[in-house]
Amino acid sequence: MTHETTIISLGGSMIAPTTVDTAFVKAFRSLVTLWLDESPRRRVVLITGGGGPARQWQEAYRASTETHEAEAQDWIGIAATRLNAALIKAVFGSACPNEVVTDPTAPFDWTGRVLVAAGWKPGFSTDYDAVLLAERFKADSVINLSNVAQVYTEDPRKNPGAKPLAAVSWADFQQIVGTEWTPGLNMPFDPVATKKAAAMGLSVYMAAGSDLPNLGKILRGQEFFGTVISARGSKQ
User: Fold this and answer.
1) pLDDT beneath 70, residues of the chain
2) Distance separating alpha carbons of residues 65 and 173, to the nearest angstrom
3) What is the structure's pLDDT at 234?
4) I need a surface site. Which of 47, 95, 99, 118 has the fewest CB within 10 A?
C-alpha cells in the first residue's frame, strides 16, 4: 500500500506554553486520530518544539552564568523538544510504536501510523528537522502549527501597522525572518529551515495550532485561515 505522508511541525508553544496544555494535547490527539481513521493510506510525522520549558531553562542558564554559549542554549532547547516528543509519542499509544526520531538523516524504523520527531542538533530549530523529514518522505508540504495565526509583513508587536499575509513567496519570507539563527529565536519559521524549504520548492502552511477545526481543513485540503509560503507566493 502506498502511504500518504503528512508532516506537521507542532510548536512547543502549543504543547507547553508554560506548563503542559493537557486540553490541547487531548484534543489534538483526537483530531489526528479521527483524520487517520478516515483512510488507511494516511500517516503523519509530528515534530515537536520546545515551548515554555525551552525558554525557561535557557533563561535560567543565561541568568546563572556570565557565558552565554549559543550551542549550550540550543542543547537545552533540544532537551525540551525531546521531553515534549516523549509526551506526544505516549499519548498516541499503539499508533506510534517507534522510537522518537532525534536525527532525521539517520536510519530508523516507521511501522505505525504516527511517527514523532524532536530536536536534532544545534544551529536551527525543529522547523529544519520538519523540512528534512518532508524531503526524506517526499512530502510536498509542511503544516506549521504555532501561536501565530498568520505571517505578517513585519513583527506586529513592534509595528502595529504590519499587515497579515494570506500568501507569501519564499524570497519575501526570507526577507522577513532574516538569514541568521540564534537560540530561542521567535520567528514563524526559522531562517535555516526557510532557506532549505525554498531550495526544495516546498510549501508551508502556517496556522494557529489552537484552532483545531482549522487544522482539520488543512489536513483535508480545504480552504483555511493562515498563510501559505511557497515559491509562487500564492495559495496552491
Assistant:
1) 1, 183-186, 233-236
2) 35
3) 54
4) 99
For the entire predicted model, the pTM comes to: 0.93
As given in the structure block, the three cell numbers for residue 27 are: 484534543
The CATH architecture assigned to 4-230 reads 3-Layer(aba) Sandwich (3.40)
Retrieve residue 176's grid coordinates: 522577513
Cell of 235: 495559495
**What span, in angstroms and rounded, lies between the C-alpha atoms of 101 and 86?**
10
List the chain domain ranges: 4-230
Tell me the C-alpha to C-alpha distance, in Å, between residue 187 and each of 28, 115, 214.
23, 25, 21
Query: Which of 159, 127, 139, 140 minimizes the C-alpha distance to 50?
Result: 127
Model pLDDT for residues 42-91, shown as the tens digit of each residue: 999 999 999 999 999 999 999 999 888 889 999 999 999 999 999 999 99
Distance separating alpha carbons of residues 234 and 221, to the nearest angstrom: 15
Yes or no: say if 100 and 116 are a contact pair by the CB < 8 Å rule. yes
Per-residue CA distances from 80 to 75, 99, 185 (Å): 9, 17, 15
